[in-house]
Amino acid sequence: MTASPQEAEPLIAIRNLSVSFATGAGPADVLRNVSLDLGRGRVVGLVGESGSGKSTLASAIPRLLPRNLSRLEGSIAYGGRDLLALPDHELAALRGTRFAMIFQDPMAALNPVFRIGTQLVDLQRAKRPKERRGALLARAAAMLARVGIPDAERRLSNYPHQFSGGMRQRIMIAAALLAEPDLLIADEPTTALDPTIEGQIVALIEELRQDYRGTILLIAHSLGLVSQLCDDVAVLYAGTVVESGPAAAVLGDPRHPYTRALLACEIGAGVARRATLASIPGEVPDATRLPQGCVFAPRCPQAAEPCRAAVPPLRALGGGRSVACTLV
Amino acid sequence: MPVLLRHAGQRLATTLLVLAGAVALLFVLTLFISGNPAQVLLGPRATPEAVQAFTQAMGLDRPVHERFALFVWNVLHGDLGTDVVSGRPVAALVAEVLPYTVTLTLSAIGIAVLFGVPLGCYAATHPGSAVDRAAAVVSIGFIAIPNFVVAILLLMVFSIWLDWFPVLGVSRSGDVGDQLARLALPAVSLALGWIGYIARLLRASLLEVLGEPHIRTLRAYGVPDRVIVYKYALKPAAIPTVAILGLGVGRLLGGAIFAEIVFARPGIGTLVYDAISSRNYPVVQACVLVVVALFTLTNLAVDLSYAWLDPRIRRAGDTR
């Protein structure tokens, strides 16, 4: 259990979540026994390599999983209810009202053939079903101005292709904030952007924390972004949480060999490493053919016999930290 | 919307160019009629004096460039020549029957869209369902059967055996009910194949659009499925269907000829059929010109609708 020390009851408590997809090569176990708390008002970072199941975990909360889903087990507690057990229409009612999402590719996340204003009206509709179109447009214009889009009122009548990538991501952030959600899921919001624009978006998210006090689940593949923005962090490897806890503690004193390896891979993690950029040998195992025991054992420099025998459980270390490693 | 206006202007210019080309081509074709056109038109028993008089009356003895200039001049003034059989102006003949053909074609498109679009949407949102699979089989069946076969079958079943619809013709009076009853079978016979086309095409493009990330955005914000499919997915998915419909108007006009003959309806089809049978060349020429004009104008409309459907097509000055 990774309850944040500040808050007794988390906004969302994920317990033993397992998700599999049907693929040509058999069932792919994308998430296995994932347990994670998202504390109220916290920014929780979710890091891991591509294919570690970060996006699946984020999509599982509002249950926006692809059609080839073959297994969905465990529970996601929110407001005294289990999201995985809710009927479809009750869950749909939470989307856009309690949960909002920002996606990785702002070029593709907006409909190319409708005006921004029209889209922002329909994206707010679930939250404010009775509000008139004009009022929703006015709210949209105000929010666009808030996220740094100049001449916002006039630009409502523009189409997505008339905006740059960074501007489109600002529009998506505006859409998310207009929903005033309890949980804002940001799925690699800066990955598809140029580095200079990425910095602007990060600065915007930091700035918006002054207004928006809800929980943010930030998916990132860079630990730098997590250390800059997040209160808590969970490190995901091959569909399991290998380490979690307050960001400062985990990144300052990583316990799991995988977290240490990830930190070593970050550019600028240490001056000595600048010359030779570190990498982790091997690759993330195929989700259809996972190894016995600890999933990281085949790539782990410290792996011993017990690691290959049994899956190490996620153990609490105190101070809100947990780690899934037999050697710690 | 100056961008949209400029786009429309460019398209209109292209359309006029195509029409001018069609007029020139039609004129050139008359040069290739084997033998003396006057002799062909008047038949083997015409006296040399009659042939001579006709040649002069039609201006056939003048040089080619003069005849071309005269032809273009006349077309520009709405003079499509004189019917050699009745002596009436061809333009009047065409104007008389054109509304019937246009009504028939538009009704067929209307029926095809009215049934094809919901069927395509349903099939795309329920892929693999019984309706989807049945629609696939029936669609391909209707696409495969030629229009005139469908027309004859409909006529036999609904007019002759069941006696639900009047058999032939149109009522020229103001009896709208009777006119609709006589329009129903020809229009349906033309539309059936198109229902299948539209449903299949729309299903394919909708399935593609529904898998795109912007649809996921709408789902993530709780936008109702109805709004997602019929508003946000249908508009981008409609482009390939509209393109096919635009080209299909040519085929539809061709099909209308058969439907008009089978159901003995007045129209461009019956007019051109009779004109070809009686070698009434000016009428054939006029009919072809009108059909070409209808076709190019429809494609102008289709081109303009792209600009409405997809703002990225509106070229020039949209990068702000």
Explain this structure:
- The complex is a heterodimer of chains A (328) and B (320).
- With 328 residues, chain A is of the alpha/beta class.
- Chain A is 30% helix and 23% strand.
- Chain A has eleven helices and twelve strands.
- Chain A is globular and about 65 Å long.
- Chain B is built from twelve helices and no strands.
- The longest helix of chain B has 38 residues, at 225-262.
- Residues 316-320 of chain B have low confidence and may be disordered.
Helix and strand content put the structural class of chain B at: mainly alpha
N-to-C terminal Cα separation of chain B, in Å?
14 Å
The main β sheet of chain B shows up as: none
What integer is the average pLDDT of chain A? 87
Radius of gyration of chain A: 20 Å
* Overall form of chain A: globular
Cα end-to-end separation of chain A: 17 Å
State the CATH topology of the largest domain in chain A.
Answer: Rossmann fold
CATH arch. level architecture of the largest domain in chain B: Orthogonal Bundle
Strand residue percentage of chain B? under 5%
What's the name of the CATH homologous superfamily of the largest domain in chain B?
MetI-like
Main sheet of chain A?
8 strands, mixed
SSE order of chain A, one letter for each helix or strand: EEEHEEHEHHHHEHEHEEHHHEE
Number of strands of chain A: 12
- Compressed to H and E, one letter per element, the order of chain B equals HHHHHHHHHHHH
Greatest contact between two chains = A-B, 31 and 23 residues
Low-confidence stretches of chain A: 1-7, 269-275
Principal-axis shape of chain B equals globular
Main attributes of the structure:
heterodimer, A: 328 residues, alpha/beta, Rossmann fold, 2 domains, 8-stranded mixed sheet, 4-stranded antiparallel sheet, 11 helices, 12 strands, 30% helix, disordered N terminus, B: 320 residues, mainly alpha, MetI-like fold, 12 helices
